[in-house]
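Inverse folding, one chain.
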């Protein structure tokens, strides 16, 4: 590493951690210039409790979608404020990352190491952007839908630019699917936020946790012990119905369930995903 690159890395590490020059220089030496490892090095030494900026919460940002030849990728990139999410430099960075994400089929480990147009890796470009903008920025999650065994449809809600928004959903459907039905199903997913496709795919942990919460609420409200289990069973069945896609009330016609729409059109949902910026952060 050249002396110029070395000093630049020390500067970046100081910006990220708030630690002094001498300790940052040692961390860069010990980790061969790997900034992520250098931050960990300082934390293990007790010099930096956490990266100064990276310890903050980033719950704003953008979801970005790319589509080509029936394949679709989706990625969420977060910032601390909506103001930065509208920043031209941030948006340009996100767009290039989204293109790379599609090419790498949403492999985030590979994405971190790939080079951007500026000749720097995504990982280092991200650190540069954090230092320049002054906010925590994270590449949070990504997913990829190939074009095998079905057709992909998507919907972008609160669109800020083409295929960029605050909520994006993708659904893969098998069978002869009309474009308008595919679009409506993806719109339904964006609006209704299902947790899983059906009861069988809803994790036991989620059901157990919800059952525990429901029972505690019933007991605290003064319900008799012999009635708690019976009432809780009814409530958990409603929870499952409300949160599993095929059992949800169809947003286009409240007299029908999503399952009715699938049967009417002779189609089947293979998979789906819904990203909402900052959800769960």
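Residues assigned per position:
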């Amino acid at each position: 590493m050249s002396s110029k690159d070395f000093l630049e890395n020390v500067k970046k590490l100081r910006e990220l951690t708030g630690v002094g020059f001498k300790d940052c220089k040692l961390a860069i030496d010990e980790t061969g210039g790997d900034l992520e490892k250098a931050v960990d090095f300082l934390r293990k030494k007790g010099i930096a409790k956490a990266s100064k900026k990276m310890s903050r919460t980033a719950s704003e940002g953008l979801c970005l979608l790319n589509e080509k030849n029936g394949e679709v990728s989706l990625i969420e990139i977060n910032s601390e404020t909506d103001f930065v999410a509208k920043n031209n430099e941030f948006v340009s960075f996100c767009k290039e990352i989204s293109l790379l994400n599609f090419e790498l089929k949403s492999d985030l480990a590979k994405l971190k190491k790939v080079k951007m147009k500026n000749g720097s890796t995504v990982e280092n470009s991200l650190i540069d952007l954090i230092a320049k903008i002054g906010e925590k920025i994270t590449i949070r999650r990504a997913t990829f839908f190939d074009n095998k065994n079905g057709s992909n449809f998507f919907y972008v809600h609160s669109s800020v630019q083409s295929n960029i928004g605050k909520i994006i959903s993708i659904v893969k459907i098998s069978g002869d699917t009309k474009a308008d039905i595919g679009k409506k199903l993806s719109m339904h997913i964006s609006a209704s936020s299902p947790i899983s496709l059906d009861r069988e795919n809803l994790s036991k942990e989620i059901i157990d946790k919800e059952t525990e919460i429901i029972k505690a609420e019933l007991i605290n409200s003064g319900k008799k012990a012999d009635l708690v289990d019976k009432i809780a069973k009814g409530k958990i069945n409603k929870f499952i119905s409300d949160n599993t896609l095929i059992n949800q009330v169809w947003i286009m016609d409240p007299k029908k369930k999503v399952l009715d729409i699938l049967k009417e059109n002779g189609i089947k949902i293979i998979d789906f995903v819904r990203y909402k910026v900052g959800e769960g952060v």
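The longest strand covers residues 60-68. The longest helix spans residues 225-243.
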